[in-house]
Amino acid sequence: MFKPLPIAYVDVGFFAHATEDEHKVIEAVRNLLPPEQVENISFAQSNLRGHHGNPITLFESRIKDKETVRAVVENLASRLSPLDKETLLREIERHLEKGSFYIRLDKQAAFDGEFKLATTDPVRFRLRFKKNRLEDIVEICREIGMLPR
CB of 63 within 8 A of CB of 41? Predict the structure, then answer.
């Protein structure tokens, strides 16, 4: 039996723009999820309008099941490059807010199954920790391999 992670839930969110094939975008995001858990994760859809009135679909999921949370976190930790982990640590203040750790991954790279940090039009992961202190969250992230030691 494994020790439960001190993570309350994981949120996953992304946009599908009118110029994108929604099915391909969903497939790309599924590439970022653990294969053994992907069928357990469903997304709610919201139809939005962009700045110029263009249709945008927001997809969101909140993962609370402990086993699925662990699988998502371990998958992220094992697939992020050492360079991206270093970047996350170096810019930790930009990724942490009120007990949540935010990771934004490149949606285009996800089509190829690649895990790369991104800032524009990303797939957003929010890991909501049960602790709020920066030091605690950094230590937990190091233990699970999300950040370098």
Answer: yes
Q: Domain total for the chain?
A: 1
Which residue's entry shows tokens 């999921």?
61
Instruction: Measure the CA–CA gap between 73 and 32, rounded to whole angstroms.
Output: 11
Residues contacting residue 66 through CB under 8 Å, at least 6 positions apart: 4, 5
- Tell me the residue range of the domain where 61 lies: 7-143
Per the listing, tokens 């998502």 go with 72
For 94-139, the pLDDT digits (tens) are 999 999 999 999 999 999 999 999 999 999 999 999 988 999 999 9
Is 43 inside a domain boundary?
yes
Measured between alpha carbons, how far is 127 from 102 in angstroms, rounded to an integer? 6
Q: What is the CATH number of the domain that holds 54?
A: 3.30.1440.10
Strands (E), the chain: 7-17, 44-49, 55-63, 96-97, 100-106, 122-129
Please report where in the chains the tokens 């950040």 appear, as a residue: 147
